[in-house]
Amino acid sequence: MRRYLLGRVLRTVPVVFGVVTVVFLLIHLLPGDPVEIMLGESAAPAQKEELRRELHLDRPILSQYASFLAGIPRGDFGVSFRSREPVLGEIARRIPATVLLAATSITMAVFVSLPLGVLAAMRRGKTADYLSGFAAMLSLSIPNFLLGPLLVLLFSVQLGLLPVSGYGVGRPLVLPAITLGTGMAALLTRMVRATLLEELRKEYVTAAIARGLPYRSAVARHALRNALVPVVTALGLSFGAVLAGSVITETIFSWPGIGRLLIQAIDARDYPVVQGCVLVIALSTVTVNLATDILCARLDPRIRYE
Amino acid sequence: MFGIFRLSILFPASLAFLTLASCAQKLPIDEGRMVIALPGAPVNVDPRVATDAYGEQILQMTHASLVGRDAAGEPLPDLAHRWESPDPLTYIFHLRPGLRFHDGRPLTSADVRYTFTWILDAANRSPHRGLYRHLASIDAPDPLTVVFRLSEPFAPFLSTMVRGIVPAGSPARGYAPPVGAGPYRIDDLSPDGEAVLSAYDGYYGGPPAIRAVTVKFIPDSNVRFLELKMGSVNFALNGVDPDLLPAAKRAGRLVVEEGAGGNVTYLGFNLRDRALSDARVRRAIALAIDRETIIRTIWKGRADPVESILPPGSWAHDPDLPAVRFDPARARHLLDEAGFPDPDGDGPLPRLRMTYKTSQNEVRRRVATVIQEQLRQVGISIEIQSLEWGTFFSDIKKGNFQIYSLTWVGIADPDIFHHAFHSRSAPPEGANRGGYSDAEVDRLTEAARSEPSRERRRGMYRQVQRILARDLPVFPLWAGRNLLVRDRRLEGFVLTPNESYAPVRAMRIVPDSSAPSTGGRR
């Protein structure tokens, strides 16, 4: 187990390194000069040069890259060009908001998709199955940027139940979490249904029912557990999608998280913040995927720590 | 597993409970609080380093400066109740007696000197340093007098004194802004969230009537509108799309106000381009654009055509400039003259092909499409390139364009003509992006900079505007009107062309029996 974990952690290093390198190169390749965006048009050329030196933007790109990499182990992601605050602090200030939103929407997706998927599989070909399939397709087809405003129109404007935007644990959280979690819930519902149907066709289920076990128990005790393995994997993989979706959702609902910080940083060509955000997002995605793999091995003893 | 089923019922139920709980909350305005929506979060709320519009707008409520500015851009007394300039190199400001910062410290000439010395100190890397490069020395002979000496005459000097004063010794910290002496103090500032302001009773102009102001940063324009409609936001200056204004007017609690705007949208031409170097081609393009139609259809009438990039409210604006009137026949004639005849009469072949660069702003893209169609009518084929802002602006500064569209925001002084049209004002120092060069414009804009007489300066700038109207190195299109959407119970705000938030201090909440009270359905 320990060897497996160590191996997995070591294998994540090139992934994170690759992501960070590609983003570093891409953001530097983008046209647009952070110094000009910061100082405005009226600044004297000497002043711009001074700032460029100060921000180390006058150094060759390889040297900038090297000092960025050297800072990572020390937790030093540099200083934001815009706010002049340490990048780590900027990100840390917004992490709670993003974690709260992502965790709520994933929890919501799980609690909605599991029963719906099981129901659809058990009532295959019946109305409940068709309805759940229709709802899943509909939810998958509506993009976040449309679903968010539609929910606001219904729950905030028409019914007056929820605030339009803002940050908080209670009422302000509901609409952003639904917006972000709906697509994932739909995907998981279909997945649960498909994998459960596959399991139900297997001989051990038939054998269990033949032994006189009630159908519901056969599903709940035996088939569902095995059907959940690919679902947990999908859940882990869709964590990245949730973080990506939070960029849009946070903007719609004025949610002060990392997604919004990243958008603003890209607009201002605030290189250190963009790199820091991407690094944090890459690290958390990799970590969640690692946790998923471990969880899968727990769920299914046939999966070995190899 | 059936536990999961039970949980899955509990979860939505708890969400619903959260939703319904505290539904009977009061609206902010019922509690005497005003909520302002800004389209973005400020990067910095320190007057010494803030450059972004949202930071400046909060500072207009929280930090007082030596002088203010009226609607025409003329200086007004603020912390300094009077000033004099015994010679073009010296400005003496006299502070009001008894001024205090929000934390109770007295505000004296030493704080004024500190603020500007801090900006000028290269170690502090203030983006405003370039603006004060003409300053030779700042003296504080007594607590109520500040003397600024310049190294060379610089007529726009007073317009640069609109800079919030901070207490001597204030460190620069991004999210803990230094205290000011304006009508409101900052109680809390959360990045990307909101700024909470409260009235400052020691303000020299008297305490503001509205005791609490929250500034919410809401990037999405539809969300801003919906918040206004629900009453959770009560004030948005230029925060609602023109398309949504009819709906805002229908909402009983909201009032829409319009005022002349100071931001001029224009078409820029690259004069290094073979065709566009010919003034007849530039004029033909201007004549082929029907501004009235664009203003009526896209701007819903909420813009005014202009003939100069200096907004009509400015003291140096020339009201008698000849207007460019829509005349496609004359445009075709000018193109013929310039050597671009129509190759196939009514056929599909154009006389000229050009690219038109613009940002990804939705309204700008729609304007570009209409201009594309209007120019097609006179035989000019336009390819629209709508680019992400950083890329777009970088292209414009590098001269990598034929035609582009941009807006001059917050022009405070006619010295803009030196910045935008002097032959030595090429980017990156200046904004003469099209490569325009005219000896007379160079001479006049240089002379006006060091001319102490306001009247003579005005005369010089009027001449400059006539030359520019003749040569059309850029084609000024329109000045968008400022649009305020506010709760009908909020009164006392005066719209100014420069979108100033300073008048917020004069606002008050009036009881209004005819307005829907706690918001009907909420």
Secondary structure elements and pairings:
The complex is a heterodimer of chains A (306) and B (522).
Chain A: H1 2-29, H2 34-39, H3 45-54, H4 61-71, H5 87-122, H6 127-141, H7 144-158, H8 171-200, H9 203-210, H10 215-252, H11 258-267, H12 271-299
Helix pairs in contact in A: 1-12, 5-6, 5-8, 5-10, 5-12, 6-8, 7-8, 7-10, 8-10, 9-10, 10-11, 10-12, 11-12
Chain B: H1 2-20, E1 33-38, H2 53-62, E2 67-69, E3 75-77, E4 80-87, E5 90-95, H3 109-120, E6 135-142, E7 145-150, E8 184-189, E9 194-199, E10 212-217, H4 221-230, E11 235-237, H5 245-250, E12 254-259, E13 264-269, H6 279-288, H7 291-297, E14 303-305, H8 328-337, E15 352-358, H9 362-376, E16 380-386, H10 389-398, E17 403-408, H11 416-421, H12 439-449, H13 454-471, E18 474-480, E19 482-487, E20 490-491, E21 508-509
Parallel strand pairs in B: 1-10, 15-16, 15-17
Antiparallel strand pairs in B: 2-3, 4-5, 5-7, 6-7, 8-9, 9-10, 11-19, 12-19, 13-17, 13-18, 14-18, 20-21
Could you explain the architecture of this structure?
The complex is a heterodimer of chains A (306) and B (522). With 306 residues, chain A is an all-alpha fold. Helix content of chain A is 77%, strand content 0%. Chain A is built from twelve helices and no strands. The longest helix of chain A has 38 residues, at 215-252. The termini of chain A are close together. The mean pLDDT of chain A is 86. Chain B is of the alpha+beta class and 522 residues long. Chain B has a six-stranded mixed beta sheet with strand order 14-18-13-17-15-16. A four-stranded mixed beta sheet of chain B has the order 1-10-9-8, covered by helices on one side. Chain B is globular, with a radius of gyration of 26 Å. Residues 515-522 of chain B have low confidence and may be disordered. Chains A and B meet through α2, α3, α5, α7 and α8 of A and α1, α4 and α10 of B.
